[in-house]
Write a structure and sequence with these properties.
The protein has 7 helices and 10 strands. The chain has helices spanning 36-49, 70-81, 108-121, 154-164, 184-211, 225-229, 242-254, and strands at residues 2-7, 11-18, 21-29, 59-64, 86-87, 125-130, 133-139, 145-152, 217-221, 237-238. The model has no long low-confidence stretch (mean pLDDT 93). The strands form 2 sheets. A 5-stranded mixed sheet has the order 3-2-1-4-5, with helices on one face. It has a 5-stranded mixed sheet with strand order 8-7-6-9-10, with helices on both faces.
């Protein structure tokens, strides 16, 4: 089985995969630093809780946008699972070209989403990830990574509201029954959720217009992707496991080569 690991700014998502099937998934906070032993013990416990023995893990692949935790995380994989993980980054085969002005600036999470979308749904396509940041990626019919848009995620916007204003409370992020809100909490919810829906619609339509591509598929993923997708007819597909599937696809393209022993800053 394959252990696919997506390290985001808020959470680390783990997926244990047998072929295309995700047999187990679990999460860990990425904002709190841990030692390699803490990562390792937590990982073994989560595998065990899902009925998976560590010896069943045949390979590991990681995509990360949080460099500071990588030394401890990678060391935990080597120490507790006995495997050197593949790291999505320069030198790894993805099957797509990045044709932006500075390919080295493109985050590995965006590449993984583009790979998954192209392999599973074809192109041209727009891939939207509703994570800590909301990202929009355009790929052409060949899967070439052509452009991207990055905006604050819904939770970032919500946090700014209740941290930077004196009287606004911390709230649950959900769609209120009406945009014509009549009290503080539903007013905030309306602004956050309908604001994200409006932004999403506009950016999708502008990306379609400026690219000039016909028949663009729009694929969404990420924690709040389902909520926004249900309210946005421009989104064709919502796939919560898009990045895990992208990691699997990249692993398959690279598994015949030995993973590099990456050097990371020691924060253990």
């Amino acid at each position: 089985m394959l252990l696919a690991v997506d390290v985001g700014n808020t959470n680390i998502a783990f997926g244990v995969m047998k072929g295309e099937k995700i047999v187990a998934s679990f999460r860990m906070m990425s904002q709190t630093a841990h030692t390699s032993d803490e990562y390792g013990n937590n990982l073994i416990a989560m595998l065990r809780n899902n009925g998976i023995d560590r010896n069943e893990i045949e390979g590991i692949i990681i995509s990360s946008v949080v460099p500071n935790i990588m030394h401890a995380l990678v060391n935990s994989m080597v120490k507790y699972l006995g495997k050197q993980p593949y790291i999505v980054g320069p030198g790894i085969k993805t099957g797509i070209k990045i044709v932006t002005k500075n390919p080295n600036e493109v985050g590995p999470d965006l590449v993984v989403g583009a790979v998954a979308a192209h392999e599973m749904h074809g192109g041209p396509a727009i891939i939207i990830d509703f994570g800590t940041a909301t990202t929009y990626v355009l790929i052409n019919e060949n899967g070439d990574f052509e452009a991207g848009v990055v905006s604050p995620g819904v939770r970032i916007s919500a946090k700014a509201l209740w941290e930077d204003t004196a009287k606004l409370p911390e709230i649950e992020i959900k769609k209120p029954s009406s945009i014509l809100a009549q009290e503080t909490i539903s007013s905030m919810q309306a602004g956050l959720v309908y604001g994200q829906i409006g932004q999403t619609k506009y950016i999708i339509n502008e990306m379609k217009r400026e690219s000039g591509y016909e028949g663009i598929k729009v694929i969404a993923t990420g924690g709040l992707g389902r909520l926004i997708s249900e309210e946005c007819e421009e989104i064709d597909i919502y796939d919560p496991n898009l990045l895990l599937q992208g990691l699997r696809i990249i692993y398959e393209k690279n598994k015949k080569t030995k993973p590099k022993n990456e050097e990371f800053e020691d924060r253990d």
